[in-house]
Amino acid sequence: MPPILPPTNKQPQNQTQNIQPPFSSSSMDLLLLEKALLGLFFSVIIAIVISKLRGKKFKLPPGPIPVPIFGNWLEVGDDLNHRNLTEYAKKFGEIFLLRMGQRNLVVVSSPDLAKEVLHTQGVEFGSRTRNVVFDIFTGKGQDMVFTVYGEHWRKMRRIMTVPFFTNKVVQQYRKWWEFEVDSVIEDVKKNPESETVGIVLRTRLQLMMYNNMFRIMFDRRFESEDDPLFKKLRALNGERSRLAQSFDYNYGDFIPILRPFLRGYLKICKEVKETRLKLFKDYFVDERKKIASTKSTTSNGLKCAIDHILEAQQKGEINEDNVLYIVENINVAAIETTLWSIEWGIAELVNHPRIQKKLRDEIDAILGPGVQVTEPDTHKLPYLQAVVKETLRLRMAIPLLVPHMNLHDAKLNGYDIPAESKILVNAWWLANNPEQWKNPEEFRPERFLEEEAKVEANGNDFRYLPFGVGRRSCPGIILALPILGITLGRLVQNFDLLPPPGQSKLDTSEKGGQFSLHILKHSTIVMKPRSF
Ligand code: HEM
Fold first, then answer.
1. Three-state SS string across 117-157, please?
2. Which residue CA neighbors atom 11 of ligand 1 most closely?
3. 100 secondary structure, DSSP code
4. Cα 412 to the chain's mean position, in Å?
5. What is its main location (predicted)?
């Protein structure tokens, strides 16, 4: 039987070799096929009955007409990225429903409805959806980022706030962040290629972001990109992101009878998850426990985040698995998101030399040439802040936010939203809709000093939600903004950032995932040191 796969417009994936294709040719598959056909038959009957009942009960949002079992999946495909969903919004309006097999997917694309979901009905829509892959990586919601709205989430968020998300943390670690970007600058200057053919700066910045976060978590840093532990960690985190962000497993998540064909994929997910949590435990959490039993403080005399988290465990508030899932969450939520944004910011600055020069001139004028940007300085540099905001607007790292979910039947804009629907807020479109913004496709930081001067990244305007807003908004904004400011500020201060020889612009094609947006090709950049 030919594979029943939906039309997709996705890019070819760089897959791990032993992920099984959905349909392989073996006798095992005949058995599966028989089961699938039987399942299909009964599911059609059940789905028709349910849809008849549901049709009577619910006034559902508009959307393409679904067929039994598959819903809209055959028509829509797997690639539910922000741009494809924007096209559906243009057709069906500010709220629409896609029936993706057994899953209801509701997409909202207007500031008013974003406010309704994230703020006014923040409790009703404050849960997270699950899917077969996330269930593996989060131990069915034992973490914080992907757990439903309720007691467990409240407890985890409270426990994580003091060690991670306060201004005290920023003040305790900002000198380290400044040190880390300095060490990037030193390394770049030592590399003769950076001035001539150029370098892929991203790899070095990735080490910097790991060091920024592992300092907060464990009072640790990695000396170089060749550190074997760093390499292992990076590879496992990369694999986890790739497996979770891919659209390739959607078919098995949407259509339960196709789930047997995901066996190979899910097996790899389980292996990656187990190896990764073991690495966190053996090399970081247990190591820290040993140190804490002797010194109980960091090298500068203060507790690091894991000390606070382990205290909560000792008090019986959370268990050992929860501790590991907190480490897992910070690894996925903090490092790559901030790194993608730094990478986008650099690419836009290279492609807009006038803006780059204007930023450099502002820093020179306000701080004095050669005086290195610190965290308190970022508040005195409005153009730097505008560059950061514009990067997060045009190149939103999490363009659909992390999917929300309503645990119970709910109402939105006069429509019924069945319990456990996945709710996507198309935050990228809110911030890039020409009906709401002047020439949104243009990278123009000035907008945040002129017509949009009152708009902040913290969600004070529902057209601009790079970190979400409300109960499930990003608590990491307090760390991400200063890190972005210090990093972009110091790089521009110390180097002329240029495209590689023979190229006038960097390629800024995008790659979208389940809820990520990063640059498709990591750019090579020429970095000419400035002399002061
Ligand atoms: C530029 C960098 C970052 C961006 C653009 C970003 C964006 C976001 C977004 C859009 C959400 C989901 C909001 C929602 O669903 O309504 C989120 C959630 C979250 N972020 Fe960030 N984030 C960034 C950096 C960080 C950092 C540095 C940390 C931690 C140190 C962090 C920790 C979290 C956590 C824990 C959540 C889940 C909150 C919850 O479910 O209650 N993020 N982030």
1. HHHHCCCCCEEECCCHHHHHHCCCCCCCCCCCCCHHHHHHH
2. 474
3. E
4. 26
5. membrane
Q: What is the pLDDT of residues 152-200, one digit of tens each?
A: 999 999 999 999 999 999 999 999 999 999 999 999 999 999 999 999 9
Is ligand 1 within 6 A of the CB of residue 273? Answer: no
pLDDT of residue 130: 85
Which residues fall within 8 angstroms of residue 7, CB to CB, at 6 or more apart? 74, 75, 77
330 lines ligand 1 (CB under 6 A): yes
Angstrom CA distances, 303 to 279, 297, 309, 343, 532, stand at: 22, 5, 11, 31, 38
Average pLDDT value for residue range 211-237: 97
Q: Which atom of ligand 1 is nearest to the CA of 340?
A: 1
d(Cα 483, Cα 99) in Å, to the nearest integer? 40
> Measured from the CB, is residue 22 less than 6 Å from ligand 1?
no
| Among protein residues, the one whose CA lies closest to atom 18 of ligand 1 | 474
How do residues 411-444 score in pLDDT, each as one tens digit?
999 999 999 999 999 999 999 999 999 999 999 9
Ligand-binding annotation for 269, yes or no, is no
Please work out whether the CB of residue 206 comes within 6 Å of at least one atom of ligand 1: no
Pocket test for ligand 1, best of 467, 481, 486 (most atoms within 8 A of CB): 467
Containing 359, the helix (H) or strand (E) segment is helix 353-367
CA dist 75 to 5, 52, 100, Å? 10, 21, 10
> What's the whole-model pTM score?
0.90
pLDDT tens digit sequence for 391-405? 999 999 999 999 999
Instruction: Name the CATH topology of 151-529.
Output: Cytochrome p450 (1.10.630)
Average pLDDT over residues 29-55: 53
* 58 burial via Cβ count (<10 Å: 0-12, 13-18, 19+): middle
Which residue of 167, 174, 474, 515 sits with most ligand 1 atoms within 8 Å of its CB, as the best mutation to test the pocket?
Answer: 474
Assess whether the C-beta atom of 424 lies below 6 angstroms from ligand 1.
no
Q: Which atom of ligand 1 is nearest to the CA of 402?
A: 15
- 410 three-class SS: strand
Distance from C-alpha of 423 to C-alpha of 80, rounded to nearest angstrom: 13
Asked whether 152 lines ligand 1 (CB < 6 A), one says: no
Cβ proximity of 212 and 177 under 8 Å: yes
Q: What are the domain boundaries of the chain?
A: 151-529
Question: In angstroms, what is the span from residue 330 Cα to ligand 1's centroid?
Answer: 9
Please work out whether the CB of residue 147 comes within 6 Å of at least one atom of ligand 1: no
